[in-house]
Write a structure and sequence with these properties.
Largest sheet: 3 strands, antiparallel
Distance between the termini: 100 Å
Helix content: 40-55%
Number of strands: 3
Oligomer: single chain
Strand order of the largest sheet: 1-2-3
Structural class: mainly alpha
Length: about 375
Amino acid sequence: MTFFCATRAQDFLKCSSGDKCPQATWYKKMKTKIRTKIFYRSIDNNETLDQSANLVCYKHILEMCGALARANTAEAAERKLAIKLLWREAGRGSEPGALSWGGLRWDHNFETPTIESPQSKPGKLKFVALVAGINRLADVLLDIGDHLVHERGSTHFSTDEKCFVLPSLGSTGGSPKLSSWIRALQSRGLTGAAEKYSHVAVESLPPAPTAAGVRPGAADLLAMSVPAEIAVHVTGHDLTNLSALWEYLDCRTALLVVGSIPMAGWPPLPYGQTGDGPKHPTLRALVEGGVEVARLEAMIDELFSFHDASPPMLLHGGHMRLMMHAILATMVMYYEERFIAHEMDTVRTQTLTLTLTLTLTLTLT
């Protein structure tokens, strides 16, 4: 009798949602009734039925990045980059911490960097296209440059271990810390608000903002801008179980860029169409104006405090050196706007000093 009951119990527990056996039918009906009772009990008790995080939208991202730029500290530069990367990848709170310098690639077709983004929850790799932003607050390369300047060469690359872009977040558990960074920008008196950021507080943030609210906010923008089959390339959802076709489309930059365009603040392409994305500025105008490339390369190394142990892909001859060219060009392009807005004064001062030195050298020679 004991053996019979144990066998029946095992058969019951092994029932799947697609089974047609009596046990499975009874089990599905029981789950439906329990779910219905819980639902109506929540209504009667005036409980909040929607337990999802409050949406953090594009507007909030720009205002937080602007606030942190005005804070003008190394910590603020790091947090600004983390928040922008979280938005650009429409990611979970743990994803920015898993980004590494070794995951960067320069796409010559679209003239933009891409970066590998491991997703710990589904165990799936996705890619992020770091296309140029529509303005200085939407531009992610400007955030990378600010972070590198404030780091003052403290990042040391090693082939023995992964070199993370934001090591303080941790490669898997960065969501609570990133949420605390967002809450720190709330108005004085709110839970989690930090006094050191009270002078740049973002009053428009939703109640109890968290990193978890960024992904649905980004998904809403993508849903308004591109078809779902294109949006998934940004969000990283897995559709390979629907068709083997997605095995081939999964990592195509041509599809990824389409969704990245509205995420960077630009008007989307005509609905359902692919095409080219916005371009980062280059140093071509300076070179054509008589500045030697070698001097610009030296300026990059000095501004970002590069040394022999810096990530090699960022150094002269590295496969991401074009990204460093674009970062310097972006800093020069937005210099006046950031001066007026009092953003990242330390970075601007160093950029100006090196520019004046370069100009003086050219004059003397």
